[in-house]
Amino acid sequence: QVQLVESGGGLVQAGDSLRLSCAVSGRLFGSATTGWFRQAPGKEREFVGAIMWNSGPTSYADSVEGRFTISRDGAKNTVYLRINSLKPEDTADYYCAYRRGFDLSRSNYAPTYEYWGQGTQVTVSS
Fold first, then answer.
1. 71 and 79 in contact (C-beta within 8 Å)?
2. 10 Å Cβ neighbour count for 81?
3. Which of 34, 49, 74, 93 to pair with 55, CA 20 to 30 A apart?
4. Which pLDDT value is given to residue 102?
5. Rg of the chain's alpha carbons, rounded to an integer?
6. DSSP readout, the chain?
7. pLDDT digit string (tens) for the chain, length 126 residues
8. How high does pLDDT run on average in the chain?
9. Euclidean distance between CA atoms 2 and 24, whole angstroms
10. What backbone torsions phi and psi does residue 55 show, to the nearest 5 degrees?
C-alpha cells in the first residue's frame, strides 16, 4: 500500500504564489509517476501535471504550463506543486496521485493512477 498526504492549501489572493506538498509513504514502486489533479466546484477533475519519481521529467497541462512547476525531493519522498500568479479560476481541491510506470505516457489520465491523496483546498480571492 502507498499513502499520499497533501498539504499547503489555503486561502490566498490573486497574484500570490503557493507551494503544495505531497508526502508519499509505504511500499513505493521502483519506477513511478506522481501526478497532480484538481477539481473545481461543480467541475470534473482535471490533470495539472506529473513527474517521474526517479528521473524527474515532467509533463503539464497546456492550461497551466508556465505558472505551475512540479518538483520532488527524493530524500523526503515528497513531490511539490508550485503555483505562481494565482488566479481565482485556480480555486479547487488539489490532489496528488501515484502509479507505477516507466514514463509519462497517459499521465494525464486519472484512471491510470493507483493511489490518491485526500486533497488540499486552494481558494484564490480576487
1. yes
2. 26
3. 93
4. 86
5. 13
6. -EEEEEE--EEEETT--EEEEEEEEES--SSEEEEEEEE-TTS--EEEEEEETTT--EEE-TTTBTTEEEEEEGGGTEEEEEE-S--GGG-EEEEEEEEE-SS-TTTT-GGG--EE---EEEEEE-
7. 999 999 999 999 999 999 999 999 999 988 899 999 999 999 999 999 999 987 779 999 999 889 999 999 989 999 999 999 999 999 999 999 999 988 899 999 999 999 999 999 999 999
8. 95
9. 7
10. -100, -20
d(CA 32, CA 54): 7
Which tens digit of pLDDT belongs to each residue from 18-48? 999 999 999 998 889 999 999 999 999 999 9
**Residue whose grid cell is 486533497:** 119
- Amino acid 41 reads P
Residue 54 CA to residue 121 CA, distance in Å, equals 27
